[in-house]
Write a sequence for this structure.
């Protein structure tokens, strides 16, 4: 056990060193391009200038990251609740699945920038609208993944449950729901990145009418002011938010839900 | 209640089943498995052995004929137990929780009594030390032991096994065959086992039903004495009966 932990720790350290090396190389090339082609700050600032802008604008940047983070988490949670419920219904009724699943796909294919203005008309320039847009963006991966998980139980296991007279509810409770946890976490991982994108896109629209202060709003304002260095720092903040959300979901998946997620491949 | 009251005979009367595409998987089979008897079903791949076993378990609905248990297991949920070719354990449940599963599903007894029963069953198959392990932490042989413990935890009248040791190496196969014999000696439940392995069927069963193209081609009475153990494999009688079964399989 101790040897395994030590091996895992070493793997993490190696991974950190590799990621940091790639980041260092990219930042170096970036700095070199700006210096070599003498690019103006408005077109492409250096990493140092972006860092300085981030420090200068730290308060609004922090506040905006927090707002967008809250909206992304809220939207993701709403999509998990709605998505999981829909998947359970789809798994219990083939008719409903055939009738409604195409609409879930439709929701995924309609561009969110086309729906956002409509949602603003219906829901206003509010935090709620950002959450709704985020939930719509996150919904499909969760419904798709969980429905697959609920329906992918093995023939032998199904037979076993039939043999002991397990009805629909016992099957759902003891077999389908536990076997879908791994699929749910995969769906949430996919959606965690999309949640930040959805929240920022919604903020592009919602920020126009109010004092709403998400990253999308900040980006719109800084674009208008050609504050490219601050804009790049906001892009980094949004990327960091996405990574944090993905990492948190991964942590929950491996630590709290290990029984359902780590051992799923060991079916026997 | 006496031990013999907990076992049932199986009567298959003119049992037939068609699958889509007009494929007759089992063609009017008449077979009686006596209470407390071990019968092996052997035959080439696709001859309908597993389908016949599934019909006995009630997992397939016959197109014609009937399967009945005598005495019937009505009112005794878990009266028929089935061991699949793969252990089919739930990966999110521990070994003990997997053995408890049938009792959870049929809702027998309190939570505590179910766990006690499952613990005893794990002891019987020699896995009490692995109660808190997950299936991914068990070897193939251990998983199959758990699967057998899970099948027997409901104290079934009838135990049906579908090539349970096919995926295991020879040593494990022999060990588990021996374990099955020991469990049967203690409880004397009725056993029907599908197998491709002639030696396994000769060692374990009292009768061997040879199947061909969905029909019962021959039933062979096993002359080997009871109780049986691994040493029997080296006897002349074992070799002779092995030869008979082999001939019957070839259709001689």
């Amino acid at each position: 056990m101790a040897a395994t932990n030590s091996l895992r720790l070493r793997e993490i350290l190696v991974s950190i060193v590799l990621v940091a090396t790639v980041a260092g190389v990219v930042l170096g090339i970036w700095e070199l391009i700006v210096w070599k082609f003498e690019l103006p700050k408005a077109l492409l600032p250096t990493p140092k200038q972006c860092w300085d802008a981030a420090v200068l604008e730290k308060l609004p940047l922090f506040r905006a990251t927090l707002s967008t983070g809250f909206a992304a988490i809220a939207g993701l949670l709403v999509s998990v609740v709605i998505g999981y419920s829909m998947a359970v219904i789809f798994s219990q009724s083939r008719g409903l699945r055939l009738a409604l699943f195409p609409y879930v796909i439709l929701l995924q294919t309609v561009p969110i920038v086309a729906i956002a203005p409509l949602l603003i008309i219906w829901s206003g320039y509010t935090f709620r609208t950002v959450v709704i847009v985020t939930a719509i963006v996150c919904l499909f991966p969760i419904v798709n993944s969980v429905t697959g998980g609920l329906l992918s139980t093995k023939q032998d296991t199904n037979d076993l449950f039939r043999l002991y007279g397990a009805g629909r509810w016992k099957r759902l409770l003891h077999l389908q729901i536990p076997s879908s946890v791994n699929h749910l976490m995969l769906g949430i991982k996919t959606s965690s990145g999309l949640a930040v994108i959805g929240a920022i896109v919604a903020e592009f629209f919602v920020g126009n009418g109010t004092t709403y202060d998400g990253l999308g709003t900040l980006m719109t304002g800084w674009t208008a002011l050609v504050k490219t260095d601050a804009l790049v720092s906001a892009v980094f903040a949004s990327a960091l938010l996405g990574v944090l959300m993905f990492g948190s979901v991964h942590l929950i998946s491996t630590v709290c839900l290990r029984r359902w997620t780590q051992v799923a491949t060991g079916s026997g | 209640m006496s031990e013999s009251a907990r076992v049932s005979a199986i009567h298959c009367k003119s049992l037939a089943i068609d699958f889509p595409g007009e494929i007759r998987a089992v063609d009017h089979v008449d077979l009686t498995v006596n209470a407390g008897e071990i019968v092996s079903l052997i035959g080439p791949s696709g001859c309908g052995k597993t389908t016949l076993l599934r019909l006995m378990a009630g997992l397939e609905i016959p197109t014609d004929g009937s399967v009945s248990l005598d005495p019937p297991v009505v009112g005794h949920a878990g009266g028929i137990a089935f061991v699949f070719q793969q252990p089919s354990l739930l990966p999110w449940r521990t070994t003990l929780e997997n053995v408890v599963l049938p009792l959870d599903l049929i809702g027998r007894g309190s939570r505590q009594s179910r766990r006690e029963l499952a613990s005893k069953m794990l002891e019987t198959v020699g896995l009490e030390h692995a109660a808190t392990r997950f299936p991914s932490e068990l070897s193939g042989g251990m998983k199959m032991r758990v699967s057998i413990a899970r099948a027997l935890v409901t104290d079934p009248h009838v135990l049906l096994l579908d090539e349970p040791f096919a995926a295991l190496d020879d040593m494990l196969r022999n060990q588990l065959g021996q374990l099955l014999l020991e469990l049967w000696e203690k409880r004397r439940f009725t056993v029907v086992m599908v197998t491709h392995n002639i030696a396994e069927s000769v060692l374990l069963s009292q009768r061997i039903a040879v199947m061909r193209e969905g029909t019962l081609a021959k039933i062979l009475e096993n002359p080997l004495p009871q109780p049986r153990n691994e040493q029997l494999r080296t006897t002349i009688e074992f070799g002779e009966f092995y030869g008979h079964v082999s001939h019957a399989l070839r259709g001689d």
Notes: Residues 1-5 of chain B have pLDDT under 50 and may be disordered. Chain B has two domains: 3-76+157-250, 92-156.
